[in-house]
Amino acid sequence: MENITFNLLDLYRHGPAFFEFLALRKRFFVDQLGWDIPHDDQVEMDQYDNPKAYYSLVLRDGKVIGGMRAMATTAQWGAHTYMLRDAVDGKLIGIPADIIPHAEVTPMVWEATRVVISDDVTTQADRAACLSLVLDGIVAQARAQGATEIIALCPPVFARTLRQLGFAARIIGDSYVNLHDARRYVAMRMPAVMRGSPPPQPATRSQRPQADAPL
Are 128 and 165 spatial neighbours (Cβ–Cβ below 8 Å)? Predict the structure, then answer.
């Protein structure tokens, strides 16, 4: 398995990988879960697949077997920002407006969405390895842009899975039941640090920069 990361500006470097990711999303979210989201016969693609988005995919034998999308909570493209903020603003049908306490808008926090792993990845060990690589790529991209935390909407069990893999994920807010697949989802957040690393500690008073200190 290998991880690749990119945005729309450099997806051409990876051949059909982006298309394969969209096709994998369609098979899972539309064909299996029955979500009523934008798609055609081959791919699923929505308003958040725009130049503000970043992608982390995993390849095996040259084929995409898993992936995730992410963007900063400062992102805006047309009338849309990021998924959880749009839900809070009442722009998304089916996600409660109180899914998170408040919608953050800061380059320090990124949102991750559309995580998927192919059914061709059959063993628990391989699926764990694939998900770990996907998250490694998202964390690396977020950190490169100065982010310190990642938020996401996911099944409640997903936060426990991430903790087992070495990511310090925790649930925030209350869960809700999705009308399309009757599954329960909840918001979570985790530090944007590599798996197994301790979460960053807040600076002590002596470590904090003074008002006149150089940045």
Answer: yes
Q: Which amino acid is at 159?
A: A
Q: What is the pLDDT of residues 94-116, one digit of tens each?
A: 899 999 988 999 999 999 999 99
Check: CB of residue 42 under 8 Å from CB of residue 31: no
Q: Rounded to 5 degrees, what are φ and ψ at 37?
A: -130, 160
Name the pairing type of β-strands 149-154 and 109-117.
Answer: parallel
> Edge-to-edge strands of the sheet including 2-7?
2-7, 54-60, 63-72, 109-117, 149-154, 184-191, 170-177
Neighbours of 41 (CB within 10 A): 6
25-73 pLDDT tens trace: 999 999 999 898 999 999 999 999 999 999 999 999 999 999 999 999 9
